[in-house]
Amino acid sequence: MKRRIYFYMASAALLLTACSQDDGRTDNSGQVEITLSAQTAGIKAGTRAETTVQTAQVAKDQHVGVYIYDAATTATTYSQGYTKPNLDYTVSDNEGTLTIGQTLYFPNDDNGIKVFAYTPYRENWNMNGINSFTVSSNQSEVTAYKASDLMMGHANGGSTVERTKAPIPITLDHLFSKVTIKLVKGAGLDDLKTVDYVYIKNTITSCNVTTENNLWKKTETVGTTTTDITVGTFAENFSECSAIVVPQKIAKDKVFIQVHTNTNGTFNYPLPADLTLEK
User: Fold this and answer.
1) CB–CB of 96/54 below 8 Å?
2) Is residue 57 a contact partner of residue 39, using CB atoms and an 8 Å limit?
3) What is the rounded distance in angstroms from the CA atom of residue 31 to the CA atom of residue 88?
């Protein structure tokens, strides 16, 4: 139940001479700028429901936390003057360009780097510990849906990325489940325009996300209190709608989907068998 999202680090030719002329360097010596952009991923069909929000790239205006390490000294992050290693990048356009307001470079000692990332950004996010996270109980607006869609990833499988001016992809994995509901006209529901709301019921919305060595390790629900999730609609008249749900098991016979209409009452969908939601 996951998709992969790609970021790209692209190098830029550096203009160093006093008259701002290109010095003609074609190797990777000297300063090599690191810039980031979110590009369309090659998504394997059928791995995740195909609602279009953040299936191919991180959406415009989303914030992405990035950790960059000097590969030779990974005990400390390589933040180049920033007071915190948890760098707050912003997706600035529909092409996935990431901006941060300061130019970052590869280390001057010719070392490579290691790069890890996650979204949505959290100021107190811990890449080596336990992070609390709660998906929104009202995902009828796409902003709340995106804020619930937690992703993590890294460059080069978490290994060293050598100095390069070629794009460096960072692969982000969705950590939660995505439930897509498709409504079909039938007995008692012959007009989808009568649908007011669609809910996902009997799910726990809070969890602890454990990371270790900058990588996702596990996700565990917190407590036993369940919360209804108002599902967002990304197709006309609720014919198709989706929500992000924390991975968990829901027991047989529990009502999982509820449809409210303004003319024909409420329709419930109890589970015919136990359902396991996975990342």
Assistant:
1) no
2) yes
3) 22
The answer to whether the beta carbons of residues 114 and 159 sit under 8 Å apart is yes
- b/e map of 140-174 (b: 16 or more CB within 10 Å)? beeebbbbbbbbbbbbbeeebbebebeebebbbbb
Rounded Cα distance between 76 and 70, Å, is 8
- C-alpha torsion sign, points 81, 85, 88, 89: positive
Tens digit of pLDDT for each residue in 154-211? 888 889 988 887 777 777 888 999 999 988 887 777 778 788 889 999 999 999 999 9
Interatomic CA distance for residues 188 and 174, integer angstroms: 36
Given a contact cutoff of 8 angstroms between Cβ atoms, the answer to whether 233 and 140 are in contact is: yes
CA distance 248 to 176: 10
pLDDT tens, 12-39? 332 222 233 333 334 666 688 887 665 5
